[in-house]
């Protein structure tokens, strides 16, 4: 099994600002305030969290091929 990657670079779809964050391993992150423009990012329809929508690396449960955030 591959090692989990916990760093992901989020890119704001509104202003293009990029920031690398550490993903939580015990919770999903549904919201993220862009430090560039202040826009509140939310997951795209069908995605479980902001990292899966706007990050360079999907969240840990998705990397492990498990359901994320209690979804089945």
Summarize this, please?
Helix content is 12%, strand content 19%.
The best one-word shape is: globular
| Helix and strand composition category | alpha+beta
| Mean pLDDT across every amino acid position | 90
Radius of gyration: 12 Å
The portion of residues assigned to helices is 10-25%
Proportion of beta-strand residues: 15-25%
- The DSSP helix count reads 2
- As an assembly, this protein is single chain
Largest sheet: 2 strands, antiparallel
User: Could you spell the SSE succession in H and E letters?
Assistant: EEEEHH
In spatial order, strands of the major sheet run 1-2
Low-confidence stretches: none
Number of strands: 4
Distance between the termini: 22 Å
Number of individual domains: 1
Explain what the structure shows.
This protein has 72 residues and is of the alpha+beta class. It has one domain. Helices cover 12% and strands 19% of the residues. It has helices spanning 50-54, 60-63, and strands at 7-11, 18-22, 32-33, 40-41. A two-stranded antiparallel sheet has the order 1-2. A two-stranded antiparallel ribbon has the order 3-4. β1 (7-11) and β2 form a beta hairpin. It starts with 6 loop residues before the first strand and ends in a 9-residue tail after the last helix. The model has no long low-confidence stretch (mean pLDDT 90).
């Amino acid at each position: 099994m591959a090692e989990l990657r916990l760093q992901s670079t989020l890119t704001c779809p509104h202003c293009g600002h990029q920031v690398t964050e550490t993903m939580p391993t015990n919770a999903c992150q549904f919201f993220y305030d862009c430090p560039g423009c202040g826009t509140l990012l939310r997951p795209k329809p069908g995605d479980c969290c902001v990292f899966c929508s706007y990050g360079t690396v999907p969240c840990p449960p998705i990397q492990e091929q498990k359901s994320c955030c209690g979804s089945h």
